[in-house]
Amino acid sequence: VVVSKPSKPAMQPQIPEPPDADGCPAFSVSPIKLEVLENIVPLGNLNPPGHTFPTQHLYFMTEGTELINTVAPGDLTIVEVASSTKVGSDITDYSVRFSVCTEVLGYFNHLIRISAALEQALALAQDTACQEYQAGNDTFRRCTSEVNVALKAGDKLGQVGGPQAQSAGLDFGL
Questions:
Q1: Sign of torsion, CA 159 161 166 172?
Q2: How far apart are the C-alpha atoms of 164 and 83, rounded to whole Å?
Q3: Residue 170 gets which letter from DSSP?
Q4: What whole-number distance in Å separates Cα of residue 107 and Cα of residue 92?
Q5: pLDDT, tens only, 6-17
Q6: Which three-class secondary structure state does DSSP give residue 5?
């Protein structure tokens, strides 16, 4: 068998540069180290009974037994922190909403811990709304606070996983 270089270069797809969306930066860092990812569940996943319609987010799945650091995937501003605590327990599940630019908003769900910067912003938050809700036989208290925390790519958001986590992964939606 003889393998030779083609006489004509192969057609390379032309990938256009994204338009400058009002200075909107791109993500440059994985929110979770790739070495600790078990898998990534794609956008549109069905997972009844919790998700009977296609999800609007990806899942970055980890083994779940250890706490895993989560970082900002790019320069962004955290605009909201929400906590959901099962009444009668000390287990809290955090969600953060962020803005990359005026056109791009996103969120991370299922942080078991948040960074010191986010804890400080949460403690200083003036506008917090709380409500209780039922999920099966359990009662949860969800509190949502508006914050304004600028992060650079790679800055710590918090941690996911661990033995008390409600999820072994991080939801990532835009």
A1: positive
A2: 15
A3: E
A4: 17
A5: 344 444 444 444
A6: coil
Question: How far apart (Å, rounded) are the C-alpha atoms in residues 85 and 132?
Answer: 9
Type of residue found at 144: T
Decide: helix, strand or coil at residue 115: coil
Q: Which residues contact 119 (CB under 8 A, 6 or more apart)?
A: none
Q: Which of 80, 22, 31 is nearest to 59 (CA)?
A: 31
Task: With beta carbons less than 8 A apart as the criterion, state whether 63 and 165 touch.
Answer: no
CA distance linking residue 39 with residue 61, whole number of Å? 5
Percent of the chain that is helix, strand, coil (3-state, to 5): 5, 45, 45
pLDDT of residue 94: 95
For the chain, the average pLDDT equals: 80
- 3-state SS of 21-90 is CCCCCCCCCCCCCHHHEEEEECCCCCECCCECCCCCEEEEEECCCCEEEEECCCCEEEEEEEEEEECCCC
Q: What is the pTM of this model?
A: 0.77
